[in-house]
Write a structure and sequence with these properties.
Elements (H helix, E strand, L loop, with lengths): L1 H18 L2 E3 L6 H10 L4 E8 L2 E8 L4 E7 L5 E8 L6 H10 L4 E10 L2 E9 L4 E7 L4 E6 L1
Antiparallel strand pairs: 1-2, 2-3, 3-4, 4-5, 5-6, 6-7, 7-8, 8-9
Organism: Sphingobacterium ginsenosidimutans
Pfam families: PepSY_like
Protein name: Putative beta-lactamase-inhibitor-like PepSY-like domain-containing protein
Length: 149
């Protein structure tokens, strides 16, 4: 139950933040924010900036196949959250084992790795022919939240 509340609160917070977002050109992003971003992601392509609830969000791609990323940065340059697209094969073995145990026959789709401070979580969907769940798990495979989709 607690995991559902956490996941619901995160979804609500992110959707609320999105309601107040403004696209901005990089020239209007503070230099300390741009410098922090460029140091951490020197190979970023197609960077788009938004200002959401006092945080600067950069959406961009990296790599040959265009891996999607979103990063939230405070006005002092501190990166507070990083969400990146991930191949399901790149999930930790403990996460894959937990899904196979708890959701036999389901396939994993739309994997995201989320880093906040030093904490890493994974958000993804598991689907069968008749059922679909959105999950948030930690690096050990413990389910922090799940919602039937």
């Amino acid at each position: 139950m607690n995991g559902k509340m956490i996941l619901s609160a995160c979804i609500l917070a992110l959707s609320t933040i999105g309601a107040f977002a403004q696209d901005i050109p990089q020239s209007q992003v503070p230099a300390v924010v741009v410098n922090s971003f460029q140091q951490k992601f020197p190979k970023a392509k197609g960077v788009e900036w938004e200002l959401k609830a006092g945080l600067y969000e950069a959406e961009f791609e990296t790599g040959l196949f265009g891996t999607d990323h979103e990063v939230w940065i405070q006005s002092n340059g501190k990166i507070v959250r990083h969400k990146e697209e991930l191949a399901k094969n790149d999930l930790p073995k403990a996460v894959i084992a937990k899904v196979k145990k708890d959701f036999p026959g389901y396939r994993i789709e739309d994997v995201k790795k989320i880093t906040e401070e030093q904490k890493i979580t994974y958000a993804f969907e598991v689907k069968s022919r008749t059922d679909e769940w959105k999950l948030v798990v930690d690096t050990q495979g413990s389910i922090l939240g799940k919602i039937r989709d």
